[in-house]
Amino acid sequence: MEINILAFGQIEEIIGKDSFTLSDVRDTEALKSKLSDLYPEMNRIPYSISVNKNIINGNHTLENGDEVALLPPFSGG
Amino acid sequence: MEINILAFGQIEEIIGKDSFTLSDVRDTEALKSKLSDLYPEMNRIPYSISVNKNIINGNHTLENGDEVALLPPFSGG
Amino acid sequence: MSTHKKKKVFIEGPISPDFIAESIAHHSVKTNIGAHSIFLGQVRADQIDGQKVKAIEYTTYRELAEDKFHEIREAAFEKFELVCMHIYHSLGVVPCGEMCLFVFTSSKHRKEAQDACNYIVERVKKEVAVWGKEIFENDSHTWKQNTV
Amino acid sequence: MSTHKKKKVFIEGPISPDFIAESIAHHSVKTNIGAHSIFLGQVRADQIDGQKVKAIEYTTYRELAEDKFHEIREAAFEKFELVCMHIYHSLGVVPCGEMCLFVFTSSKHRKEAQDACNYIVERVKKEVAVWGKEIFENDSHTWKQNTV
């Protein structure tokens, strides 16, 4: 199983790339905890997550091929 | 004693001129009643009055040389 | 209190989109501005008793109107944290589809500019000695009434 | 419910006063419009920790942002009696003093246009997946934060 991950704004900067893949993350909670291990700086950013272009609330099961985006607070306008 | 009277908008149209003088009107109530006699159509317009460029409330004594304006409801914008 | 100069408000005929663009462009040097709020009044082709409005002709009692514009301007600067404020109103004939009122407020943050703009438009329509004569396509006319 | 086409919102670089003027001029044929309300966001030269902002660079998650713009557009048409509505947002670098957001609402009477404009600006700033990177004069940067 492979999840496609997109990173934006400050998170893209922390991770150092705008997209990458991860395997073995069964849900968004697992993903967050993995990211927090890999990139401790992410702990200070209150980011949201979208799965296949829908922003999710709470935990969400991930499936092979899902597009998951890491969204720091919006600051348009 | 002579009062200079300015008429605007619909009132100018009713009176047929934009300025004229009246004598023997000691206050704005007397002026209104005189105008109402001369131009009965003015009775259906809720106009205000300014004296020397100040809009007045209630009755106001007039003096020689005063500039009195007859102001139908504003409709700018 | 009266710290701002009286400014030219009245414009002969319609207010053009180019005039508005120029007015906006002038503000690029004021880099403490974060938000502009603009209100434009446009002449509507209203149907009244089967007749269609083709233009509005505006007249004013100029001195009274200019005093009031100045008073509204001072009050808005007092009430809201504004960097800039401009008010323009047409006199004479403004055809349907063209602009007769242009209120332009600028501030650091959006809420002040928006609130000030609404406040000014409200007062201009209610308190300024300007009259609109609605001219129909057959050249007859009626007197515009502002809803209160 | 979704009756309006998705419209192009994003513009590369600053939104120019001429673009705004053209947009206004296009509405002269819609003679049922009486009021336009316009909001413009302008990039401020803020001082942050002694550094002066010289530009903001905007990026987006385009598909998510375009869906949200569409949703906001539909909701505003539903909520307010509008004749017209346009939303434009910059992507890429917008220097200080130039425009990054242009919201334009038109209606028969003023209140609907004003309320709709405020409503749209509020939602755009809060809900749309756009990020601003504030670039300082020494080319370092910080991430813009919108006040909630």
From TrEMBL, chains A, B:
<dbReference type="InterPro" id="IPR012675">
    <property type="entry name" value="Beta-grasp_dom_sf"/>
</dbReference>
<dbReference type="InterPro" id="IPR016155">
    <property type="entry name" value="Mopterin_synth/thiamin_S_b"/>
</dbReference>
<dbReference type="InterPro" id="IPR003749">
    <property type="entry name" value="ThiS/MoaD-like"/>
</dbReference>
<dbReference type="Pfam" id="PF02597">
    <property type="entry name" value="ThiS"/>
</dbReference>
<protein>
    <recommendedName>
        <fullName>Molybdopterin synthase sulfur carrier subunit</fullName>
    </recommendedName>
</protein>
UniProtKB/TrEMBL annotation, chains C, D:
<dbReference type="InterPro" id="IPR036563">
    <property type="entry name" value="MoaE_sf"/>
</dbReference>
<comment type="similarity">
    <text>Belongs to the MoaE family.</text>
</comment>
<protein>
    <recommendedName>
        <fullName>Molybdopterin synthase catalytic subunit</fullName>
        <ecNumber>2.8.1.12</ecNumber>
    </recommendedName>
</protein>
<dbReference type="GO" id="GO:0030366">
    <property type="term" value="F:molybdopterin synthase activity"/>
</dbReference>
<dbReference type="Pfam" id="PF02391">
    <property type="entry name" value="MoaE"/>
</dbReference>
<comment type="subunit">
    <text>Heterotetramer of 2 MoaD subunits and 2 MoaE subunits. Also stable as homodimer. The enzyme changes between these two forms during catalysis.</text>
</comment>
<dbReference type="GO" id="GO:0006777">
    <property type="term" value="P:Mo-molybdopterin cofactor biosynthetic process"/>
</dbReference>
<dbReference type="InterPro" id="IPR003448">
    <property type="entry name" value="Mopterin_biosynth_MoaE"/>
</dbReference>
<comment type="pathway">
    <text>Cofactor biosynthesis; molybdopterin biosynthesis.</text>
</comment>
<keyword id="KW-0501">Molybdenum cofactor biosynthesis</keyword>
